[in-house]
Amino acid sequence: MASRTSDLGSPPSLRDSPSPQVERRPRGEDAHLLPLSDGKQTAILLQTPRTTIGRAADCEVIVDDRRVSRLHAIITRDGERYLVRDAGSLNGTFVNGRRLLANTPTRLYAGDELGLADLRFRFVSGPADQPYLPPDRLRIDDVAAEVFVGGSRVALAPKEYALLRALWQRSGRICSKEWLARSVWPEYQGVVSDASIEAAVSRLRRKLAAGGGRRAWVRTEPRRGYRLVGDEE
Q: CA dihedral in degrees (216, 217, 221, 227; nearest 10)?
């Protein structure tokens, strides 16, 4: 795999370089894709407003794999948002396991899994050097609004799902109650009692644990808020 937007060189294998405990973003304000399929740790930077991905030599990110089309997918930056669309590929572009319709933009959120044919990447976004800590075994299907723990679906009420999605977007970072109130209950313009937020967090923890996850994935930061953490913390 090669990139025309950055000098990635030859990524070391996991045998040559131990896997870090925490994945960290490269310096700068650009999002990046972290390869998951082949055990390589080098990030693919998304430095330009429009990043083309495929086998063709004129793509910004060149993927040397016959399963990938010459022009497979395009990622565009719209302000702080990143959108991906399948460019009519043969073997498909996937977000969190769901195949995208051709030429239909889909927003990427921090922690989303992007699939190009059988290759998989993690979309990482956030402030520079911010640790990205996806909980082990937790997956969100943003198209179907479903949550899976270890492959099993966890039934969440709409506000519980919205709460988890808000925490997921800022994985590893503290989310204040004020920020959660505005993000999860926009219909109340952020005027939500602490007791209501605490009750929603408690219900979310119980359901994740009942589905085979861990209550500790949603950590309380006293007097500051909550954050979503990984199993290693």
A: 180
